[in-house]
Amino acid sequence: MGITSKSEQKQLSGIERELVLQYLIDGNVPVTLTPVAEESRNTESVKPLSSAVFPVALKGEKVLADKSGRILLENPPQSVLAFAGKKVKVEFYFNRVGLYFHSDVLEASKGLELKVPDTISYIEDNFETQKYDFTVSLYYECRTQSDINMTCIPWKGAPLFERPAWKIIPLQNQQKAKKYLEIFVEQAKVEKNAGNGIQLIPVCNFLTFQEEHKMEALQDRVKPLSILYVDHERIVFGNEAKGLNLVAGAEYALKMSFTLKEGPIISRDLYVTCKVNKIYNDVQGTKYCADCVYTSIQEEDLRFLFEKATSRLFG
User: Fold this and answer.
1) Terminus-to-terminus CA distance in the chain, angstroms?
2) What angle do CA 90, 96, 97 make, to 5 degrees?
3) Residue 129: its pLDDT value, please?
4) Burial of 308 per CB tally in 10 Å (0-12, 13-18, 19+)
5) CB 233 within 8 A of CB 294
6) Residues near 246 by beta carbon (within 8 Å), at least 6 away in sequence
7) Cα 228 from Cα 233, distance rounded (Å)
8) Rounded CA gap, 38 and 36, in Å?
9) pLDDT by residue (tens digit) across 159-200?
10) Contact 32, 55 (CB under 8 A)
């Protein structure tokens, strides 16, 4: 028996809470702790103490629960010891469903203690459903003739259809990004496969960008690929290494969908095929970028992409 995340249900029932408590007792449940502060004595809402406060993940073997709802954090790391005497948000997954509760952190002889309260809640589902002026559907792998149907959306770290500039990379990441760029440029000189190389700026930006990783409502949900760069010759995608991996040398069919803000036509779809020309990875092996060049494109679509990407007339 399990539980299922429901938009209309924010908290577990009593029976579900007992199931979750037994799950914690059975052991080996990783948890994430984030310090919170009470917003007001007259409300139960909480907010982060500071934007500089980051979640700390604990491995399951460090988390020991008993039937009374007491949780011992055995020999916690220094980062967690700093939470003693504070209230924390405790997040974890049960059958891939994200759950959380709040608890005070108390000192104990072997480490720190938490208490599972009567109320355990679902992590809010914030999966992005916003509309974009441009999206891509990666729907087919040509060699294996396999359907994929993966949505791709613009990456929030940089604008599309503008010439990439080094200043788009956050200042604190530029030194690391420069090292990546030097490596990739040397590779391009040998392989002669990067064109004018302008797409390497968003690639280096994506690989060095520090995003806040939050527990989600559903564990291991497949996320859309990020679109990092587009012009009339290539399109570049980025993703986490544990997500959908595009394969170097493989050819894919894409539908590129535009919402047009001017003119009598309100939308335009382009159908192209592209080949993964180069894979770029970060040194940690957590992210990758796939630089893809078009292998087939209609002339009028090539013209459209050229003019949109360069703001110049084609020809």
Assistant:
1) 65
2) 60
3) 54
4) middle
5) yes
6) 225, 237, 239, 252, 276, 279, 290, 292
7) 14
8) 7
9) 999 999 999 999 999 999 999 999 999 999 999 988 999 999
10) yes
Report the predicted TM-score, pTM, of the whole model to 2 decimal places: 0.73
Nearest to 118 by CA among 216, 6, 32, 11: 11
Q: Which of 187, 173, 157 is closest to 280 using CA atoms?
A: 187
CB 244, CB 150: distance < 8 Å: yes
Q: What is the DSSP string of 182-216?
A: HHHHHHHHHH--STT-TTHHHHHHHHH--PPP---
What pairs with residue 73 in β-bridges? 63, 112
Whether the Cβ atoms of residue 274 and residue 252 lie closer than 8 Å to each other: yes
Give the integer Cα–Cα distance in Å for 183 and 95. 42
Beta bridge partners of 147: 140
Q: Which residues contact 198 (CB under 8 A, 6 or more apart)?
A: 163, 164, 229
131: left (phi over 0), alpha (psi -120 to 50) or beta: beta
Centroid of chain to Cα 230: 20
Q: Write the DSSP string, the chain.
A: -----BTTB-B--HHHHHHHHHHHHH----EEEEEEEES-TT---EEES-TT---EEE-GGGEEE-TTSEEEEES--HHHHTTTTSEEEEEEEETTEEEEEEEE-EEETTEEEEE--S--EEPP--------SEEEEEEEETTTTEEEEEEEEE-TTS-SSS---GGGS-GGGHHHHHHHHHHHHHHHHHH--STT-TTHHHHHHHHH--PPP---SBTTPPPPEEEEEE-SSEEEEEEETTSPPP-TT-EEEEEEEEE-SSSS--EEEEEEEEEEEEEEE-TTSSEEEEEEEEEE--HHHHHHHHHHHHSS---
pLDDT, mean over the chain? 87
pLDDT reported for residue 241: 83
